[in-house]
Design a protein that fits this description.
- The protein is α+β, with helices and mostly antiparallel strands and about 120 residues long.
- The protein is built from four helices and four strands.
- It has helices spanning about 10-20, 45-50, 55-70, 100-115, and strands at about 25-30, 35-40, 75-80, 85-90.
- The two termini are about 10 Å apart.
């Protein structure tokens, strides 16, 4: 599933640069502002997720992602909650220098313009 809000990508990338050596995740809620949630404060997010339809499955995936990235820096799980109850979960890192990054973002914009 494609990233739902391309306008958020720059703010998420900026935040990832700031917190790249901290353990945790990036959370975007109805405010459409990216915030960092430290590893020690993830439990309330998981409880909120589990109360939603299909939320237990996403909470499990988020836990696995957090455990995989714990102590490794840079890449973080990103969870986007939308007002209609839908969500997006993925991994993002601050790889501005990655050669395929610009192609991937351009592809994302093309896909969204078609939908």
């Amino acid at each position: 599933m494609a990233f739902p809000l391309p306008s958020l990508l720059p703010s998420i990338e900026d935040l990832l640069e700031e917190v790249q050596w901290l353990d945790g995740m990036i959370l975007v809620t109805d405010s459409q502002k990216a915030t960092f949630v430290s590893f020690s404060q993830v439990d309330p997010v998981l409880r909120r997720l589990r109360s939603r339809p299909r939320g237990a499955e996403v909470a499990e995936q988020l836990c696995m992602s957090l455990l995989e990235t714990h102590g490794k820096g840079a890449s973080k799980p990103v969870l986007v909650f939308q007002g209609d109850g839908s969500f997006w979960l993925g991994m993002m890192g601050p790889g501005k220098g990655h050669p395929h990054r610009h192609h991937a973002i351009a592809h994302l914009h093309r896909c969204l313009s078609l939908s």
